Amino acid sequence: AVAGSTVELGCSARGDPAPQVQWHKERGDLPWGRHEVDREHTLRLYAVTSADAGAYVCTAQSQLGTAAATTFLRV
């Protein structure tokens, strides 16, 4: 990603019952005041900086179990 741009990281999780979806950064916190997660579980990072680079993990959890996927961001 280019520094200063907006990045969208998708996460697809479906089930019955619908799973709870959470995003976190593998080492550190999501950028304070510069991120949001929409109804489709897409994580948006605004005005990214080199400090935002790293691994981001999407975790889906329901009564049936837990699944996780990791994506890597380079700035």
Automatic annotation (TrEMBL):
Under which name does UniProt file this protein?
Answer: ROBO1 protein
Which Gene3D superfamilies does the entry mention? Answer: Immunoglobulins
Its main subcellular localisation, reduced to a broad class, is: membrane
Give an example GO biological process. axon guidance
Localization per record: Cell membrane
Keyword Glycoprotein assigned to the entry: answer is yes
User: Which GO cellular component terms, listed alphabetically, does the Swiss-Prot or TrEMBL entry include?
Assistant: axon; plasma membrane
Classification via InterPro entries:
Ig-like_dom (IPR007110), Ig-like_dom_sf (IPR036179), Ig-like_fold (IPR013783), Ig_I-set (IPR013098), Ig_sub2 (IPR003598)
Q: Which Pfam families match?
A: I-set
Highest taxon of the source? Eukaryota
Annotated membrane-spanning segments are none
Please state every residue range assigned to the domain named Ig-like: 1-75
Q: Provide the alphabetized UniProt keywords.
A: Cell membrane, Disulfide bond, Glycoprotein, Immunoglobulin domain, Membrane, Repeat
